[in-house]
C-alpha cells in the first residue's frame, strides 16, 4: 500500500492521544491471571494477498449480516457500504439508532430474540447488561484467525477492555478522548478587549457581553455564552460544575471514597451560578429541548461564544465539517481555547472523559450463525487498509498523499454522499489530514487537570444497570428545574440529595466502592 509507513505513523499518533489519557485512571478493573484459550476451529484465516497484507473476502454467495449501529446516516447502496460488502463478501442490513434511543431499541431486540449479528452500545449501563447476559462472543478467542483485530489495538488497550472473567467481548472506537474543549470566540474577546477568562468572575463578564452586547453586530439578540442538547449529559456544563470541583452524573474520588459529583456540596454552588446565568439570558434557553443536530448547527453558525465545543472546530482542514461552516458564517471569526476556570473552590476539576473503552463499543452475538462473516467484516475494518478506506476512500480518487499528510480531493458534501467517516465499527480515528491547530488543541487537552478520568471506568456491577440510570434521570430533572428557576436551588438541592440516596443512591454508592476496592 502506498505510503504505508505514513499510515502507521498516523495510526500511532491517533492512538497515542488516547493512550496518554487512559493511564490517568485512579482505579481499573481486575483481570484474570490466565489468558483466554483459543476457540475451536470455527473460522478461517484471512487470505494473504502476496504483499504481506490481508484481504477479507471469501468465495461463494455473500453472507447477510444484520448490524445495529449508532446512527451515522449510512445509506444503502452508498459507495463505501458497497465496497465493504464486495471486499468482505457480505450483505449488510444496517439498523441505526440515535444515541438517546439506542439502549431502548437494543433492549427490545434482546427481549424479542431478534439479536443482530453485530451490535453497538454507547452507555456503560447497557454494556454492563450485555456483559452479564451470556450472549456475547469472546473476541479474544478468535485472534489467531483474525490478526487484524488483535493488531488493531495496542496490548494496553486490550487490557482495559478485559472483563472480570479475563475475556474481551467488545471493541471500542479508538479516538481522541475527550473530544470536547472549552472554547471562546477569540474575535469577540478582541472586540471587547478581553483576555481568555481564567476565573468564574472573568468568565461571567465575558459571557454577559457575548449574550447581551451584540458581538456579531447583526442587531439581533441571538447570541449566547453556550447551549447544550438532549440527552443532557452535563458535559456542556462541565466548565461551571468543574470550577466548583464537581461533575454531576460522573463518579469522582473524594477523600478515598467514590461518590457521584451530583450530590457533592459544590454542585449546589454551581447550580446557583447557572441559575443566575440562565435568568439573565446568558444560556441558550433551548438547551433543554435541542438535539445534537440543532446544537451543532448553532456551533457552526457561531452563536455560542463561551462554552465547551467539539474539538474539531479547530481543524482548519475541516475534520467532521465544523471549521468550514463556522468560517463561512463568520469570515472574521476565530476560536481559542481556555483553561479550567478557578474561583469556585480550592480544587477545580477539568471536564469529564468518555469511557476509555471507547465512546461506542461493538459486540458480536455469540450464537449468530454468521460469526465467521461478522469477524471477517471487523477484521477488514480494523486492518490498516480498511481503516484508511473508511476514513478517506480510494487513493487517487478521493485523496492523495503529500509527504506524510493526506490531502482530500473531494469536499465534505461528497464525502458524506460516499459515506466516508460513517463506519464506526471498531474504527481507529486517523488525523492524517488534520491541521496543526487541531494537534495544538489535542496537546492542550493532555495538560494536567484539563480532563478528569472516571475512577471506576470499566467496572461493571448489577447496581450500575439496575439503579444508576434512574438516578441519572433524576439528577437531570432536578438540576434543570433548579437551573431554569422552577425550584429554588437553596431548598431544592438539599431535597434532591435526600431523594437521590433514598431512591437507591446509598446502595449504589456502597456497591461501587466495594467493587472498586476489590478490582483495584
Description:
Keywords: Cell membrane, Lipoprotein, Membrane, Palmitate, Signal. Residues 1-32 form the signal peptide. Residues 30-62 are annotated as: Disordered. It comes from Hungatella effluvii. The chain has 520 residues and is α+β, with helices and mostly antiparallel strands. It folds into two domains: 26-33 and 51-176 and 358-429, 3-Layer(aba) Sandwich (D-Maltodextrin-Binding Protein, domain 2), CATH 3.40.190; 180-352 and 451-519, D-Maltodextrin-Binding Protein, domain 2 (3-Layer(aba) Sandwich). It contains 19 helices and 16 strands. The protein has helices spanning 4-22, 79-88, 99-112, 124-131, 147-151, 155-161, 186-191, 200-212, 238-241, 265-279, 292-301, 323-329, 371-381, 384-392, 412-418, 436-445, 462-466, 468-483, 489-519; strands at residues 47-48, 54-55, 63-70, 90-97, 118-121, 171-172, 180-185, 251-254, 257-260, 306-310, 335-337, 351-352, 361-364, 399-402, 405-408, 451-452. Helix 10 (265-279) packs across helix 19. Residues 1-55 have low confidence and may be disordered.
- Report the top-level CATH class of the largest domain: Alpha Beta
Oligomer: single chain
What is the CATH architecture assignment of the largest domain?
A: 3-Layer(aba) Sandwich
On the 0 to 100 scale, the average pLDDT is 89
- The main sheet orders its strands as 4-3-5-13-6
Organism: Hungatella effluvii
Protein name: ABC-type glycerol-3-phosphate transport system substrate-binding protein
Region (Disordered): 30-62
Keywords: Cell membrane, Lipoprotein, Membrane, Palmitate, Signal
